[in-house]
Amino acid sequence: MDTESARKKIEALRQELDRHNYLYYVKAGSEISDYEFDQKLKELEALEKEYPQFNDPMSPTKRVGSDITSEFVQVKHKYPVLSLSNTYNEGELREFDNRIRRETNLEPEYVCELKFDGVSISLNYLQGVLKHAVTRGDGVQGDDVTTNIKTIRSIPLKLQGSGWPAEFEIRGEVLMPFDVFQRLNEAREANGETPFANPRNSTAGTIKMQDSSIVASRSLDAYFYYVPGEIKLTDTHFENLKLASEWGFKISEHTKKCSSIDEVLEFIHYWDNERFNLPVATDGVVVKVNSIPVQNDLGTTAKSPRWAVAYKFKAEKAVTRLLSVSYQVGRTGAVTPVANLDPVQLAGTTVKRASLHNADIIEKLDLHLNDIVEVEKGGEIIPKIVGVDTDSRHPLSAKVQFIEKCPECSTQLVRIDGEAAHYCPNQATCPPQIKGKIVHFISRRAMDIDGMGEETVELFFNNGLVNNIADLYCLKIDDIASLERLGQKSAQRIIDGLEASRKVPFARVLFALGIRYIGETVAKKLTAAFKNIDNLMNASYEQLIDVSEIGQRIAESILNFFGNEENCKLVEQLRHIGLQFELSGEELEGTSDKLAGLSIIISGTFEKHSRNELKKMIEQNGGKNVGSISKKTSYMLAGDNIGPAKLEKIKKLGIPMINEDEFLSMIE
Ligand code: IVH
Q1: Sheet of 599-603, strands arranged across
Q2: Do 609 and 617 meet the contact criterion of CB atoms below 8 Å apart?
Q3: Is 291 touching ligand 1 by the criterion CB < 6 Å?
Q4: What is the DSSP secondary structure assignment for residue 70, as one 8-state letter?
Q5: pLDDT, tens digit, for every residue of 547-586?
Q6: Ligand 1 geometric centre to CA of 309 (Å)
Q7: Which of 115, 203, 250, 252 to mutate for ligand 1's pocket (most ligand atoms within 8 Å of CB)?
Q8: Which residue CA neighbors atom 16 of ligand 1 most closely?
Q9: Atom of ligand 1 nearest to the CA of 113
């Protein structure tokens, strides 16, 4: 293909992929299959690699995330970000309406919108191209989180259609849909990490992450609801939103024009119940005067516009009785208390259990058995106890005391300094820990053993067939086939699945071992850095934390795991069975120790490789890619357009800069 045809093909593919992204993520419909989409994306990626001169940071291939930013640059908002004044009842809302009518002498038209409960974001477009995505911050300036925001596929990197102003700004809310939130928390719990309390917290945590490829994997979404009044588009807020929708933004379809406060109240009452059927969290309704000239007349106070108000939904609460507290033991040994309640209706579901999290929370609530408790279902999936009616407490009722021994194996529980959770230290024989570890080992993202699931593990364990992971590989077809519910065919499938698992790559085997805090990403980083299990088992604390993304907590967990003789014995058994405990020849290709001991920061834009590729090369050659500049940084791999603040810091610390070619010759 000649260069000009390549340029045209690249441009056409970009446009096509942008359109499919929009149809899929904004319009919730699609014209092509995921497979076809991926094929086109791959084709574009290949062309962009071959023709780096047509590099475009706004290309759909750049949505997978690449940049490592440790400190977010502070950006001043062009138009200050105001907040909204809140109302909590009908009276206060009617008061707002009276004031508007009094001050304007008009029968105002309102726009009612859902109040999204996420993290607010301001997007700034220059000539139709996304330049900055900035968090609210203190309202005057916020963090530039553009690299992370670019991974949100419902956000246009380039505006569609025509008619947008050369400088355009729009505000909205970044959200983590409930189903994504639930999956993320399940994965966190499986890795022994503390789950996020609600989708808002996990969104806030996600958009401040250093590695935008992780942000990309979290499937965030964003709804837009406001174009600053200084930007003159149309005469009404509603029409402004319509235009924004034509330019590619996701605008909630549940936005409604209302011509009286009674109609507004109807909207509020409807959504007070209906919001639980939405895919994202909302915590109220925002009521805005539709006419922009009227908005301008009404003006703003120092903190909020005088033409808008938020009506906050009351968190759904119910009152019931605490029947008992039970304790669940996870695969890592963490003990979680759960309140068993007299069943009660709350936000459309029957609630029988509430999360109590840990001993501190029980203590803070001063919980007694049979207490009348108040349960709340806010943004959280599992309801929580928010209050106790101490007046109605029976004087002889017993205070809830956190258990001292494991409810499953009676081992004395331990509490690690600085951690809220209690743990059962009996990893070797505590049944839920054994079963949990095996369930994790066979799971899809770990060894992916065909034909097995939680019930099969339970069955094998209860029949004394397996007591640890290695026992799985001693199973005989007849042992399995003779069990209830399992026949010859299923037994064969399991045996074949176990056989096939001997080929599962090292990183997944390491993840499957279930070491606390070693999730899939960390396992990949560790195997890339240490190449085989012996190197990892013999690694010192310093060598561990020298690997990018590996901090104190993870390093200690690894040292702890391999410091236990039983675990080393298990690894030996598994190695003997033939599982992969080193990188394959293919995985080792392109790897070396040439950058061992070097910390390299990547900054700017590059001609030949994306930043993600460069980062991978550093890691594959034994170096550490760091996100922030310090005295310990060995080199700056410098591209074009490096910010002046960064350059100054590098010069001040005397850190040598190398360009892309110099870097490539270092690893040649
Ligand atoms: S309008 C000048 N509309 O609520 C008016 N805000 O307490 C700008 N929010 O910071 C805000 N949904 O993060 C507006 N439909 C909506 C909203 C909304 C959620 C958030 C936003 C803002 C906060 C104000």
Answers
A1: 624-626, 599-603, 635-638, 657-658
A2: yes
A3: no
A4: S
A5: 877 888 899 999 999 999 999 999 999 999 999 999 998 8
A6: 9
A7: 115
A8: 115
A9: 15
Query: In which band, very low, low, confident or very high, does the pLDDT at 229 lie, cut at 50, 70 and 90?
Result: confident
DSSP state letters, 478-496: HHHHTSTT--HHHHHHHHH
Atom in ligand 1 nearest the alpha carbon of residue 136? 10
- What is the spatial distance between Cα 318 and Cα 305, in angstroms, rounded to a whole number? 34
Q: Which residue has the tokens 């009044």?
A: 229
* CA neighbor of 558 nearest in space, from 526, 584, 581: 526
Contact 24, 8 (CB under 8 A): no
Q: For 185-210, how does the pLDDT look when each residue is reduced to its tens digit (9 = 90+)?
A: 888 877 777 778 788 889 998 998 87
Is 25 touching ligand 1 by the criterion CB < 6 Å? no
User: Does any ligand 1 atom lie closer than 6 A to the CB of residue 244?
Assistant: no
* 596 SS3 class: coil
CA of 84 to the centre of ligand 1 (A): 7
Whether 113 is in the pocket of ligand 1, judged by its Cβ within 6 Å, is: yes
Mutate to test the pocket of ligand 1, among 120, 138, 226 (most ligand atoms within 8 A of CB): 120
Choose one of 110, 113, 173, 231 to mutate for the ligand 1 pocket test, by most ligand atoms within 8 angstroms of C-beta. Answer: 173
Tell me which residue has tokens 């502070």: 74
The model's pTM is 0.64
Q: What is the DSSP string of 138-161?
A: TSSEEEB-HHHHTT-TTS-SB--S
The number of the ligand 1 atom at minimal distance from the alpha carbon of 82 is: 2
> Residue 396 Cα, ligand 1 centroid: separation in angstroms?
49
Catalytic residue positions? 115
Distance, in Å, from the CA atom of 326 to the CA atom of 337, rounded to the nearest integer, reads: 6
Q: pLDDT tens for residues 116-170? A: 999 999 999 999 999 999 999 888 888 899 999 999 999 999 999 999 999 999 9
**Interatomic CA distance for residues 484 and 318, integer angstroms:** 43
Domains and CATH numbers, the chain: 3-64 (1.10.287.610), 86-308 (3.30.470.30), 317-409 (2.40.50.140), 431-503 (1.10.150.20), 506-588 (1.10.150.20), 599-666 (3.40.50.10190)
Q: Helices (H) and strands (E) in the chain — how many of each?
A: 25, 22
DSSP-derived secondary structure letter, 258: E
Alpha helices in 487-584 (DSSP H): 488-500, 506-512, 520-530, 533-537, 541-545, 552-562, 565-577
pLDDT at 67: 38
> Ligand 1: does its nearest atom lie under 6 Å from the Cβ of 271?
no
Q: How far is the CA of 83 from the centre of ligand 1 (A)?
A: 7
What is the position in ligand 1's atom list of the atom closest to the CA of 226? Answer: 1
Provide the sign of the torsion angle of the four alpha carbons 550, 552, 558, 559, taken in this order.
Answer: positive
The H or E element that residue 23 is part of is helix 3-25
Mean pLDDT of 284-290: 97
- Report CA(178)–ligand 1 centroid distance (Å): 20
